[in-house]
TrEMBL record:
Organism ancestry: Eukaryota, Viridiplantae, Streptophyta, Embryophyta, Tracheophyta
Keyword Cell membrane: yes
Keyword GTP-binding listed: no
Quaternary organization: Homodimer and heterodimers.
Name listed for the protein in its UniProt record: CASP-like protein
Keyword tags: Cell membrane, Membrane, Transmembrane, Transmembrane helix
Protein's membrane topology: Multi-pass membrane protein
């Protein structure tokens, strides 16, 4: 019962991270606004005008694809029932934890980099002679802000998923002895018990 609850929580968090990442990528990639900047000269603002936004679109797309694959894996495990012996191995758990941490870190770092770059579009920078852009492309900036918020949500959900993956890994080890698997300790205890019973029967 406990295992099904944890598996359901993992699947829910992966689904939320997937949806947030897709929303972030779509809001940023599909956002554009055309304004007259000088007399009859028109300029269209898109995510390609800022390299950090292009990075966000790529990162969120990769994170969404990864979460989709892992979500399918969770659903298959729930359909089959429980955890298979392959998924219960420390090596597979380590790989899963590593990939979940990478997904959380790159999503968070990419979103923060885009947020820092977009900050100059709001305030400008006199030292570099960067003018404010959000007072001209207001709707564009609001949509980008929504995409960044979705990206932050995706990274937070991915971090929560990584914590569940860490739980899945460390629960395989014994709490009494470092770097010792519970299965090995139980098998050793079982073999000792069998040997003791055999010796007692011979006596």
């Amino acid at each position: 019962m406990e295992e099904r609850v944890v598996l359901g929580a993992e699947a829910s968090l992966r689904f939320l991270s997937l949806v947030s990442a897709v929303l972030a990528a779509c809001l940023v990639a599909l956002d554009k606004q055309t304004k007259k900047v000088f007399l009859s000269l028109e300029k269209t603002a898109t995510y390609k005008d800022l390299q950090a936004l292009e990075v966000v679109v790529v990162i969120e797309g990769v994170v969404a694809s990864y979460q989709l694959v892992q979500l399918v894996r969770c659903l298959i495990r729930a359909k089959v029932g429980g955890i298979s012996s392959c998924c219960n191995k420390p090596c597979s758990r380590c790989v899963c934890l590593f990939l979940d941490q990478v997904a959380a870190y790159i999503s968070f770092s990419g979103t923060i980099a885009a947020l820092q770059a977009c900050f100059f579009a709001v305030t400008g920078n006199e030292a570099f002679q960067w003018t404010k852009l959000c007072n001209v492309y207001t709707r564009f900036c609001y949509t980008i802000a929504g995409g960044i918020l979705c990206g932050m949500a995706a990274s937070l959900f991915a971090a929560a998923v990584a914590s569940i993956s860490a739980f899945h890994l460390f629960r395989l080890f014994s709490p009494n002895k470092w770097f010792t698997l519970k299965q090995r300790r139980e098998s050793r205890r079982g073999s000792r018990t069998v040997a003791a019973k055999i010796l007692a029967g011979e006596r």
